[in-house]
């Protein structure tokens, strides 16, 4: 109800014919087409620009990556290629020469 006029909104003024009901196509609020497509494309472009700006700003403010030296490549062939692996990969295989590295009499 409109407080100024004292009547309900959407009513036809006296002496006019009521409107015919509209079809579903006529009742749409807006039409699709080129303007809607332009708004969607512009929104995607702006989102991409914002994302790129955030990536650039994040890279410029990130601390530098730590550089670690890699160990030199050594001989990685097994001492005995026919040996079966041990249960403990950190176990040291026995010496092949028969000497156990101990000194004595």
What is the secondary structure topology, with strand pairs?
Elements: H1 34-61
Which percent range describes the beta-strand content?
under 5%
Count up the helices: 1
Question: SSE string, helix = H, strand = E?
Answer: H
Q: Give the % helix.
A: 25-40%
Q: Roughly what is the average pLDDT, rounded to an integer?
A: 74
User: What overall form do the CA principal axes indicate?
Assistant: elongated
Cα separation of the termini: 117 Å
- Residue ranges: pLDDT <50 for 5 or more in a row? none
Radius of gyration: 41 Å
Structural class category = mainly alpha
Query: How many strands?
Result: 0
What does this structure look like?
With 105 residues, the chain is an all-alpha fold. It has a domain at 33-57. The protein has one helix at 34-61. It is elongated and about 115 Å long. The N and C termini lie far apart (117 Å).
């Amino acid at each position: 109800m409109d407080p100024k006029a004292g009547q309900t909104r959407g009513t036809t003024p006296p002496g006019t014919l009521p409107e015919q009901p509209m079809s579903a196509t006529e009742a749409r609020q807006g039409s699709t087409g080129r303007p809607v497509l332009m708004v969607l494309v512009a929104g995607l472009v702006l989102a991409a620009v914002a994302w790129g700006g955030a990536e650039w700003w994040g890279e410029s403010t990130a601390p530098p990556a730590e550089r670690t030296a890699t160990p030199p490549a050594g001989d990685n062939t097994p001492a005995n290629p026919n040996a079966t692996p041990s249960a403990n990969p950190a176990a040291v295989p026995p010496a092949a020469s028969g000497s156990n590295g101990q000194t004595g009499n």
